Fold:
Amino acid sequence: MSIFSQRLSRIQPSPTIAITSKAKKLKQEGKQIIDFSAGEPDFDTPDNVKKVAIEAINNGQTKYTPVNGTKELIESIIKKFKRENDLVFEPDEITVGCGGKQVIFNALLATIEKGDEIIIPAPFWVSYPDMALLVDGQPVVLDCSLDNNFKINPQDLENKITNKTKWIILNSPSNPTGAFYTEMELQNLAKILLKHPHVWIMCDDLYEHIIFDNLKFKNILQVDNKLRSRTFVVNGVSKAYAMTGWRVGYGAGPKELIKEISKIQSQSTTHTSSISQAAAIEALDNSEEFIKKNKKIFQERRDLIYSKLKDFPLLQVFLPQGSFYTYICCNDIIGKKKEDGTEITNDLDLSDYLLDEGVAVVPGEAFGCTNFLRISFATSNENIIEGCDKIISACKKLK
Ligand code: PLP
Structure:
């Protein structure tokens, strides 16, 4: 009998592992690889944030903190929600965890009974379905096609709701597509959700600050406060403030949920690092300029990558309105053959081939939507230009 739990057998190793290990190996061998696979900003954490963290160490902020986060950080989070989202939360409606990832995991662990369904719009962030499976839930994938700009059709959402549905996860702007929901689109989803009061809404707002074209961010709670008693808003400092390694994420929602999450956290991680919590306060309170500057840089890169690839007939490029990813349809390449006669049968084969040609991308399969590639533009303009040229010439060689 295996020592390992049954629960783990439900989770597959990521299909991207083969690609990332190969990319690593090729780099170690000295091969020049343009890396379009990054899931984090390529900027460093702002200096003011680093300074506050060093001061926190020197001031002895090195002990356990309250499970749900320090009083000061919770105050900063409350101020952030008021200032940026016009949402008012009380301290007992906030939890802080080791990244948005742990906050989402805790919320699912706190609420899911065996067989409960979690509606996950696809393409999705890779971790949602596996987290759902780990807590004995049933991921229910809701396909969002390129024709609908990778967004949920409200009628499709309604069709997926059953009496077992516990959560719907909304992620705008989205990883991996960069799709962004307008206020009107959120209103249309809210109308459906109001008819189904047993369904909770998880708003993953991690990419809130990376949006383009002067769009104004709103989440579903800002659009319809009647959902308040069953909405959990998740955010964090990873993407907005280039702080992925600091591991600070937070969630805001009904205090009964926060209380249960707190129980889980108190018996697992206890809390995230006291130093990181101090740093997160500075990020939330004093880094508006950093956000503005990076938003502009990401928009320029988005425009550059789009202009490089949009006229290449074999790839269909989606113009992201947020995040630092673009999701590209490669259907027209499937079935073509490499110079050695082997066929490109899917996006995994294509990603593997592109890696041989010097570019690392993530196959779309990982995000629940095949024959796409996710290209991250969290890299320099020079890399974007060289990487796109390499992709185009590699694709042209296929017969
Ligand atoms: N949500 C989305 C959509 C993400 O892409 C990520 C990270 O890649 C996260 C949540 C979690 O981020 P973190 O745990 O670093 O806060």
Summary: The radius of gyration is 21 Å. The chain has a mean pLDDT of 96.
